Structure formats: C-alpha cells, structure tokens
Amino acid sequence: MSGSASGLARETAGEQARVDERYDRLDLLRTSTEERLREVRAAGSSGTPAARMERDAFATLYEDRLAQLRAVEDRLVFGRLDLEGGDVRYVGRIGLSDSSQEQLLTDWRAPAAEPFYRATAADPLGVVRRRHLTLTGRTVTALEDDVVADGAALPEGMVVAGGGALMAAVTAARTGRMRDVVATLQAEQDAVVRAPLPGVLVVQGGPGTGKTAVALHRAAYLLYAHRERIARSGVLVVGPNRAFLRYIDQVLPALGETGVVMASLGELFPGVRATAVDDDAVAALKGDPRMVELLAAAVRRRQRVPAQPRRLVVGNHRVVLRPRTVSAARDSARDSHQSHNAARATFVRRVMNDLVRQLASAHGTRSDELDADTRQSLEAELRESPDVRREVNLCWMPLTPAGVLRDLWAKRDHLAGAAAEASRHDRGWRREELALLAREKAAPLTTADVPLLDELAELLGEDPTSGAADAARAARERSDLVAQARSVLESGMVDPSGGGALSAEGLAERWATDGPRGSVAERAESDRTWAYGHVVVDEAQELSVMAWRVLARRCPSRSMTVVGDLAQTSSAAGARDWGQALAPVLGTGTRTRSGVDLSRTFTLSRLTVNYRTPRQVMDLASRVLEAHGLPEEAPSSIRDAEVPPAAVSAPAPAGSPAWTAAVVDAVRDQVVALGAGRLAVVAPQPLVAGLRSALGEALDDGEVRSVDEPADAAVTVSDVTGVKGLEFDAVVLCEPAAVVDASPRGAGDLYVALTRPTQRLLVVSSAPLPAGMEELAGGLSAPAHRHG
Ligand SMILES: Nc1ncnc2c1ncn2[C@@H]1O[C@H](COP(=O)(O)OP(=O)(O)OP(=O)(O)O)[C@@H](O)[C@H]1O
C-alpha cells in the first residue's frame, strides 16, 4: 500500500507546515530566553550580595535553558503517531507546547512517546500508523510509515509513505563524532533505555549493536524520568579513554542533557588525569584483588615502631621515645578503626602523654599533679622540639595516596615488605611480579594506578595538608552557596514575566531539584566521596576488580548501567564473566554473621542486531569468534556490504620498506574508492609509528592523524586499543596474525578490529591469515596482481 506521487507531495507539504510551526515555537522560546538573560546580565554586579546571587542563579538557569534550546536544532521533530480515534502526536527531542498549553511536541522520553518505539503489529499500543520524518536542516526531505494496526483498520485516504529512516541512518558516512539515534531507536534498545532505575543492569551485546548509543540515551532518559531522584546527585558516564569520550561527547547535549559527568578511567580520582598506560602484565597486576591487602600492608608499614629507644632533646632537657610506648600508641590508634590520617591524632596523643610525663619529671613536677595550663605549656615545649617533631612523624606521618603509591613502586624494600606482610592474608606475591611493578619515582601515574589511589585514599582518609582536602572543602562551600541560592529563589523571588517553560512554579520546582547547571558536575568531579545517583559504564568488559571497587564507592545505591561485550575483552585484568567481574559491585560473598547472603544480583539484557558492520564483514568476524572459542554469539547485521571484504598479501616482512609501501598503496586506493568518509589503518602496536609517518608523507598534508587527535581526520592510524568503541567507513587491517599473537586476548582484539568498518574492510598481511579468516585467504591477491 502506498500513496500516489501527488498524495505524497501533499503529505510532505502538510508535514512541513507542522514542522515549521514547531520550529517557530522553538525560535520564540529562544528569543524570550535570550531577552531574559540580557536583562539579568544588564543589572550587572550591583545590589546586595543576596540580589547578586539571585541574578547569578537566574543567569545560570537561562544559559542552561538556552543551551538546551540551541542543542535541539538538528532534527527537532522526527516522529508522528496516528492513534486510534484520530489523535495525532508528534515526537521530538524536547517537549513543546503552544501559548495555550496545547502539546505541540512530545519529548521522546515521555511515556506518551513510548509507542513510537514499541508498537508492533502484534501489540499496536493504540497506534494506527507510525511515521518517521527525515529533516535536512528544517526541511522535510523524507517520510517513512509503518502501518502498525491491521491494514484494514486504516482510516480512508490515509497515505502510507515508504523509505528507510533506519537504513539511511546506518549507511550515512561517519563524521568522527557519534550521533544520537533517538529517531530510529529500535524496540530491543528502547527496552534497555527505559528499564527501571534501581539495581545493576548489564547490557551484553556484540559489536555495533548500539550499546554505547543505548547507554547514553538511557542516561538522558533517567535524568528525565527520575529527575527528582537523581538530578541532585548526578549521573556519571565512564568510558575507557579521552578519545572515546570525545567521540561520544555530542550525544547527550543533542538529547538536551548537559549536566552529566563524563570521565575516563584515568580521571576518576579528583586532581589526577592519568593517560599513561602500563604494559598488559603490569596493568593486570595492578587490577588484581590482591592489591587490596598489598596497599593495606603498605599503609600499615608506614606506622612504625623504632627498634631502639630514641633520645630526644627538648630545650635543656632530654626525653626518651620508647618503643613500648610507640607500640601501645599504634595499637590504640589502629583499634580506633579510623583512616590513617584521622587515627594519627590518637597516636600522637598517646605518645605525647608519655613524653609530657617525662618532661614534667625533668622539670621536677609529678605528672599526676599537672594542671591544665602546665600540661599545655609542656606540650607546646615538646611540639617546638625538632627532635620530637621528626621522630613522631617518622613513626606516623600524614600521608597522601600519590606519595604512598610512588614510594611503593620506587622503593624495593617497601614493596617487598608490604608484599610479605600481605601474603599472610592473601595468596602470595611472586618475586617476578614485584619486579614488574617496580618503577622510577618520577614515572607518570598510569590509568591502572588510579583505582589504587582511590583505594589508598580510603585507607588514608583526608590529609588536612593536601590540595585534595582544599578541593573537597571548596566543593562543600560551593554546595552551601548553592543551597543558599536555592533558598533565595524559593523565598519568593520568581520570574516576573512568568509563562511558558520558565513559569514561577516550574522555576521553583527546578531549583529545588537541580541547583544551578554544572554545579552538580563541578561538585561531583572535585569530591572523591561524591555519591552519584546513577553510573553508566561503557566498554565495561575492560575494567579490573580494582576499578570496579572505585565505581562501587562512587555509587552506593548501586543504580548502574553496565554495557560491554565479553568477546571484546582485551585487557588482561578484564572480564570473562559478568557475575565475577561485578562481584565488588554486587558485594558477592557478603554475609551476615548468621550466614545470610547479602550480595545483590544484576539484570542481564542482550542486544542482538549489529547496526554498524555489513553482513559479509560480520560473517568473517563471526568465523574468527568461533575459530578462537571466544565467548558470546556474534550479532546479526542488518545490511549487505557494497564491497565484500578483501585481503592483499604484502610482498615483504611486516615493517620493511616494501611492506610499508604496499600498505600505503592499499590505503591510497581505499581513500580514493571511499571518497568522503573516514578510514582507519589498524596495525599491531610496534608497526603504528612507522606507518603513521609513511602515510603522513604519502598522503595529503594533514590527512593522517592518531586517534588522540581531533576525530575528524580522514585517515587514522592506530593499534586496536585506540579504535575500541569507535567506527570508520573503511578499515585497512594490517597483519591480523600478529594482532592475535600479541597478547593472550589477541583473538578478541582481532574481533574488535574486524568489526570497526561501516562499509569496507581490506586486510594486508605478509603472514598466513589467522584461523577463521581462511576464506579471505583463498581470495588473497598479491599487490602486483591487484594493480596489474
Ligand atoms: N537504532 C539505531 N538507529 C540508527 N543507528 C544506530 C542504532 N543503533 C545503533 N546505531 C549505530 O550503530 C553504530 C554502532 O553503535 P554503538 O557504537 O553504540 O555500538 P556498540 O555496541 O557500542 O559497538 P562496539 O561494541 O563495537 O563498541 C553507531 O553508528 C550507532 O549510531
């Protein structure tokens, strides 16, 4: 069933008029918000502090609203539902109503929009026809209809347009930035997006199944649907590295959400931005649960008892720091079960008591006769003594996480001693393992160090002398200020112009839950002990036990969305089983004294359709998956490749000049064949630098980039780790056998590399192709033949 050409033209013109009406409304809201912002700013910095704070608060609010209204420009309206009974509902990025409060546009996250994603012929949810509108700029360029109700039930004269909004979206050339998929979210994805807030939801899905897309849409959905519960505590999205976060950073703003905190694993500790990466084996050790005991032992070993009594000069007198006294003080400080820095006060008090007694008797006074003033002056005398300060500090120093960690890696005796002590509680540490962990004191902190810093921060507590304490204090002060600002607004100061989205009620309600925009993000980022309302983890299969422990601390409510693919695990500390990986989050093994199991469970959802990779490429990747016995089934693709995957055999060993020339030739051919679009050259790590410089010389200036550079480069050269989670129109994969051999999880890496292209895959290899790729090997062509 389909409409005639003229019927379709009429239909399109009708939709255009409706779309124009909604953009007009958007324009009006923007103009009035701009106007209000101008007025607030024009008032300048005059008036009482309360009035200034009030204006600041309004300015933030208007800026926030304006940013949101601007962010939804692209594809503001994308859906229409024709409902039984004749009602029509438009679905778009935000909710809009006209001046008489008639709903013009339904926010995609509202319950009323759900049938747009969920209605099926079997369960039409009251929908007769679902229409996808494709816009270019503000112009309607295509319509596509699904008849959801029984065709016979269609109202007379209803036009049904063909098209392919999903196909158009998945075949579009990639820009290097992820786009939202709100217009074409599929039912299995929508079910994940709208899943209930509480608990741990694991989304297992093969490559290209939209896990990242779904995770981000879910964050936006939760902030909309449960704003009152989580806006104040915030949502944290964790990705593997900065390049990945840059790739996804436009999705949430386009969905109207700007206050989400995005962090890579290396940024989860306030004040640290670790980008250095350890070798696999070292990272695996740093992610090992044995680290918990090792770090605890390292801290305990910094609570020292001198082997011999120490004579200390205090003015003209002498006192003795006795090992027995220090040992007793240490025991009572430890018994307080406080963190190291907090318990130091107990330790010092106990030691000082003994020293005060000695000094009193040196002065000829009995300590049991001391009045408070005398006691205070004796203590002051002791504190002024450099000997006392030094020796007491040596026994129980205030410590910082970074200081302890650097010392642990740099000082052999520290590490060996802590390992020996930890081994009493835990499986022992082998000498070779300790040798791997050793490092120069000046070496930069790595991403795998970050969870260890967090663990140490738990053991050490706040160091009153460190910058972190200042930052936490500043965050608390800011938080107080925000509370004050909120109360000013709540005390009756409302927007006098009223009406529309910024009505008095709306404003008051909003301030009660939100505070000024950015404030949650700012506070959360600078406060290690911040408890997020929800945490979303992408590429979750790569996280070590130690990293999961950090996330468990950041999210005491354990409301989490965890997305990943066990078949793509490449880090040695990563997951092979979700239940095991999540043990630190679920509290697995936690029991009450009477044996009641307190551990939580998680809900598992699966995504099964690959929207990225063409069928022929995915088939190849599935054969690799099977041949190497990787867990999980490959997803099915929704479209065929225009060009099937191919392989060329390189004429000389990898890395040689002739090999490099063959790769450069292959890349040049692909760039030409691709036209517009992005290409990745993926190679084993040792070959990356050579390829990057050869391609830089051979191709046009500025065309070749590493993944760390701006993502819109035409050609990216990277190892597999760098392209994880990303996608490219074409991929030239070099030396797949070496990718497999490079690490115990090499087959997973090959699977990742093979599933990056949206259109073309070309393999260049000097060695025989690995298991699963035999069919491609059958078609191996020598470059000379190819070019001949
Ligand atoms: N419903 C959809 N409509 C249109 N495009 C979609 C849809 N779902 C996913 N995509 C597209 O498919 C591609 C893959 O999505 P995404 O990167 O989220 O997958 P992934 O499961 O995280 O993949 P990987 O595990 O390989 O990192 C993206 O380009 C995304 O925009």
Automatic annotation (TrEMBL):
InterPro entries, per database record: DNA_helicase_UvrD/REP, P-loop_NTPase, UvrD-like_ATP-bd
Single GO term (MF): DNA binding
Gene Ontology CC terms: cytosol
GO terms under biological process: recombinational repair
UniProt domain UvrD-like helicase ATP-binding: residue ranges: 184-614
Gene3D superfamilies xrefs: P-loop containing nucleotide triphosphate hydrolases (3.40.50.300)
UniProt keyword terms in alphabetical order: ATP-binding, Helicase, Hydrolase, Nucleotide-binding
Keyword Lipid metabolism: no
Binding site for ATP: 205-212
Name of protein: AAA family ATPase
Organism for this UniProt entry: Quadrisphaera setariae
